[in-house]
Amino acid sequence: MAKSAYAKAGVDYTVMEPFKQAMIAAGKRTVTFPNKREVYIDSEVLHAHGAVFEYRGREPHMWCNTQEGLGNKNWIAEWMYQSAGNGRTYYEGIGIDVALMAINDVIAQGAMPVVFTDEVAVGDSAWFGDEKRAAALAESFYQVCKETGVALPAGESPALKYLLSSEPPVASAPSLSGCVTGIIAPKSRLITGKDLKPGDHIIAVASSGLHANGVSLVISCALRLKDQFLTMLPTGRTLGEEALIPTRSYVALVESLLEDGVPIRALLPGTGDGVGKLAYDKRPYTYRVHSWLPVPPLFSYFRDVLELPLVDCLKTFNWGAGYYVFVSKHDVDWVLKLGAQAGYLLADVGVVEDGNRQVVFEPDNIVLPPPGQ
Q: In sequence order, which residues have a C-beta less than 8 Å from that of residue 134 and are 6 or more positions away?
């Protein structure tokens, strides 16, 4: 059959349809996941023009919603798929990254995620034609929904020829983003951060690696190396493989703390601005960091081998801390115990003080300005 005029213009639904069906199939497998939080998806409108869901519990409740994008991380996956020559698509963890960029933000308010909707936007609909890659991405979305108790009832996959293009040598890479809705039930679980005060302790939670912040810097540095993303690291993995380790979910940790009634002062994802994000609050507080978690191998490579200035590392990468929990000093041991039981590595790394709004990183005697400075 000859291509339609629309297909010739760059939007070919015959190529896009298999990807859409793979995502629908993955989504159908997720619809019961939020039931444990007493949220139910109406399957009659599944993957139509939106998601319909309801809370059937008895608690006074609130809703939380956020939108996040993955950024450039899947560009590395595309580079590896084109260049590694081993048959892997490297999309096995990308859906996990996309969802957790938003999910890890939602839980900072004390909300438990229940519904996720995705957008996979490409510059050329031909990208959707790779069924192996489509299956890997769809499965990774399913896996993160299963882990976090979230349903994937709807999504969007536009071809945006006139808006999106990929930086060579990658031929095509989609822009990936998603929206997450979380429920706060009961309302008393709402965390605003207003209770944060001097004397509170900073508990850092170990990350799995890069997550999805600082990727542009990783790409820029990697492309200057002889073997680029195929550069071998001491871990026995390539730089590309190390960079593509999926983001960690902190849902189980936060849910455990909430269920046990820990009086949390504030929660903070370790995302943009690296360790400098600790000074997120606008009040004149100093965040004194006296100790730290193990630094992931990728970050050590950038500092020790590529000689990236440490201040740039600390203001760009999570440096091994993917999440922060702020609590009273009296609750530190409680949090450390619950975190360990939930399978996380946590450390009491610092304290909040009156003073200039900044982070004092004592392990390396560096003072970091707040985000955006």
A: 18, 19, 22, 128
